Amino acid sequence: MASYDLIVIGAGPGGYVCAIRAAQLGLKVACVEGRATLGGTCLNVGCIPSKALLHASHQLHEAHENFAKMGLVDANPRIDWAKMRAYKDDVIAQNTRGIEFLFKKNKVTWIRGWASIPAPGRVQVGDEVHEGKAIVIASGSEASTIPGVAVDEVTVVTSTGALDLAKVPQSMVVIGGGVIGLELGSVYSRLGTAVTVIEYLDHLIPGNDGEVQKAFERILRKQGLAFETGAAVQGVTKGEGGATVAWQRRKDGSLHETKADVVLVATGRRPYVKGLGLDALGVQMTPRGQIAVDRHFATSVPGIYAIGDCIPGPMLAHKAEDEGYAVAEVIAGRAGHVNYGVIPGVIYTHPEVASVGATEETLKEAGTAYKAGKFSFMGNGRAKANFAADGFVKILADARTDRILGAHIIGPGAGDLIHEICVAMEFGAAAEDLARTCHAHPTYSEAVREAALACGDGAIHA
After folding, report:
1. 441 is a catalytic site residue
2. Which residues contact 274 (CB under 8 A, 6 or more apart)?
3. What are 369-389's pLDDT values in tens digits?
């Protein structure tokens, strides 16, 4: 029986970061992963491949829409879908091989196979049982569906199937107006697919700032995506050459049908804990099927911890990474900690959408007195030069102390710009602190400073 200080189950962003950090702290570590490659959903069929396709399709959009405006004439690239998929697969391979290199560099043992936990301190993989003083479950999540919708990953697909379609469809229905659906929907829209998004709620991207929701839908409509909000999907029927989505308009009960070559089910994800044996161990679960943990990521069974998508909180790769880093430090006797108040969320469409902290809606609900500073990218010289002036930066600050409570960005590079505000919030900064920090010109980041100025006496370029 092989013995380790720590056995991590799952080599996604949370699991592999946990394993590497624990090894850096001097622990003998093994990581169990059943996929043929490391990196979990994120690197293999999630974050990384989707960003490759988002990048490729955006370059196509730029060539068709903006090159001629800049004097780049006769540029009319065509889509070689096989080559684009090969580019995407190469990006995946580079990243997964990188994790394998890091495992070897840090002396983390990769145990290949699917794990179960027959008893505390024991992890079984195939016929072999391994001993671990501590066990971290980082098993991630899987795509969920809704009643009446059967996924075959050919005609009715999840994000996994959508990343590997045999050809670019002429039409697509996306069920769900959240991050995954809008990212992949925008990819195919730019590749020439007629995309219709059907969302149960009356607005897109639930949980985001209301003003951002409205602006985002308006921009995506302008890009050619169609939306049916306030619509409850009743079922999907596959037929020759495609599928039909039956849905009901919630406000009047009227019934409708939308046909498409491909239907993408993007209705969220659920924790993946199959086969681990948690019931027999007596591991406490939440009503939503997540593993219950305390503030140190410990489960109800001593010696067993859990992180990432299989525990409560936003299902974000970087949230899992933070937890992996923190739980490794806890197990090594240090003070691991995650500040959940400054975990950003990003939608990698074009323009990007990014947020951190409170929204105006949550502040109003809590009765918090606040002020909002807003600046449009129309006033940003770099954005106008790059045909990227859609959107704005909004900073929310405490009305009394000026401390930053949240921020919301829709615009170019939003996913990168948000981190300046995350760092500011981590250090308890005021909006004035951002406003008085010199920002290089011309950069998109000047819009952040202008929004901070708008929390005070006013932006300069508004």
Report:
1. yes
2. none
3. 999 999 999 999 999 999 999
